[in-house]
Amino acid sequence: MKNQIVKTITLLMMCLSIIVSFLGCASKNVQEEVVDPNFIGDFGPIQLENAFAVKSGLSGIKALEMEMYFIPRTNNVECYFRDGVNKICLILSPENRFQVEEAVIEYMNNYQNMSLSTDKPTRKNAYTRGETNISWGVMGLARNADTNLRTNHEFLEENKPYFKITIESAPDNEDDSTYSPTVELYFSPAHLEELFRILNQDTLVEMVREKEAEAFKFETETSGGYGF
Asked: Most exposed among 15, 66, 80, 148, judged by the fewest C-beta atoms under 10 Å?
């Protein structure tokens, strides 16, 4: 009788072990199926309108034009432009765009109140700071670095305080003896208005939804077919 009880308990423990193992696998499969919150759609890059900024140098300010692409699979925006001899690709993640927008709100409030400081822009007086990624190269985007982005403002001309985005220099991800260039972009209030019209998140999502509707469209107005 005692041996029978031991066998029964052993069998129950084996069954329990199998059930726990099964539930563990099922839980793992559920976790693996969690969708990235930044995934907007399974489509390639969508070209956006070009945006403008200015650069500041010894000869004064010069126009800078940026080609921009929305990446639905990551919710990132890629900005391509020339800075001196280098071709640059700057990644603006959703977090980057939110941080820049928050900084712009503060800048514009102070701009309208004419209370912007004339202090030199530094890390200490930055509106916001965040992590980003930059690729660069003379002939192509041969190098890549994880770096920091900070926002300030600076008076480039009398009574013209520009909003400033600085991409800090950082070591190449595969060669720490080579550093990325420091990139400084300046935006007027007019530039910022256009930039955020282009980067409006609802507009970006709507572009993807329109692609989905086109991609999964079945019937045409004249195709007829089953039940039409």
From this structure: 15
Q: Is the pLDDT of residue 149 over 90?
A: yes
Residue 202 has which token pair?
């609802």
134 to 32, 48, 197, 227: CA distances (angstroms)? 30, 19, 23, 53
Cα–Cα distance for residue pair 11/17, rounded to 1 Å: 10
Residues 109, 179: Cα–Cα separation, whole Å: 36
Lookup: tokens for 83 = 């800075």
Q: What span, in angstroms and rounded, lies between the C-alpha atoms of 72 and 227?
A: 35
At residue 219, the pLDDT reads: 81
pLDDT band for position 220 (cuts 50, 70, 90): confident
pTM of the shown model: 0.82
Whole-angstrom distance, CA of residue 163 vs CA of residue 183: 14
Buried b (16+ CB within 10 A) or exposed e, 133-157: bbbbeeeeeebbbebebbbbbbebe
* C-alpha of 210 from chain center: 21
CA atoms 201, 204, 209, 212: torsion sign = negative
Give, rounded to a whole angstrom, the gap between the first and last alpha carbons of the chain: 74
Distance CA 98, CA 76 (A): 12
Residue 80, beta-bridge partner list:
67, 89
Count of C-beta atoms within a 10 Å radius of residue 192: 20
Question: CA–CA separation, 104 vs 12, rounded Å?
Answer: 65
